[in-house]
Amino acid sequence: MRALLKISDGIDALLNGLSKVASFALLGLIVVVVFDVTTRRLFQMGSTQLQEGEWHLHTILIMCFLGVTYIHNQHVRVDLVSGTFSSKGRELVELLGILLLLLPFCAVTGYYATDFAYTSFVRNEVSQSIDGLPYRWAIKSMLPLGIYLLALAGVSRGIRALVALIDPKPADLVAEEKGGV
């Protein structure tokens, strides 16, 4: 069980590390939005590149935080029924949801998102706007990355649910050591 939890901890560390790096996109987004709004309002200057940069930075943030929000249980969840379940019942529902819904969704979506980004790369796709940003494939590559990070988070959470179903004590000890999950 400890070996499985170490794998989960490794995945969690990877997702947390990537999210810390990606969080710098938020600083960039703030700078770009403030600059864009200021130049539009005060100087009546518009920039397609700034506007495209805004949604590029939004995409980086959203895709890089899909997985980390799941491992920290910060995602949207509908707990109408599971609130009445025992802890083992909730873990079973979590595990079944991961195996039957999340991972298949990530597999199909990841496949098509990868093809979407690859096609953009092969075509060396650029913005449709004459003064837009080049390398559209780079931002499209964030789509499969985000989906694969979400799948990794599902594997991590699935491992924890499985361990909790088999022997809840090790999962509780690891959660206490980490300061709660």
UniProtKB/TrEMBL annotation:
Pfam family, one: DctQ
Any one GO molecular function term: transmembrane transporter activity
Localization of this protein: Cell inner membrane
Gene Ontology CC terms: plasma membrane
Keyword Cell membrane: yes
Recorded coiled-coil stretches: none
Keywords: Cell inner membrane, Cell membrane, Membrane, Transmembrane, Transmembrane helix, Transport
Membrane topology summary: Multi-pass membrane protein
Tripartite ATP-independent periplasmic transporters DctQ component domain location: 29-161
TM region(s), chain numbering: 21-43, 55-71, 92-114, 134-155
Subunit field text: The complex comprises the extracytoplasmic solute receptor protein and the two transmembrane proteins.
Described function: Part of the tripartite ATP-independent periplasmic (TRAP) transport system.
Family note: Belongs to the TRAP transporter small permease family.
Full protein name: TRAP transporter small permease protein
Organism of derivation: Halomonas organivorans
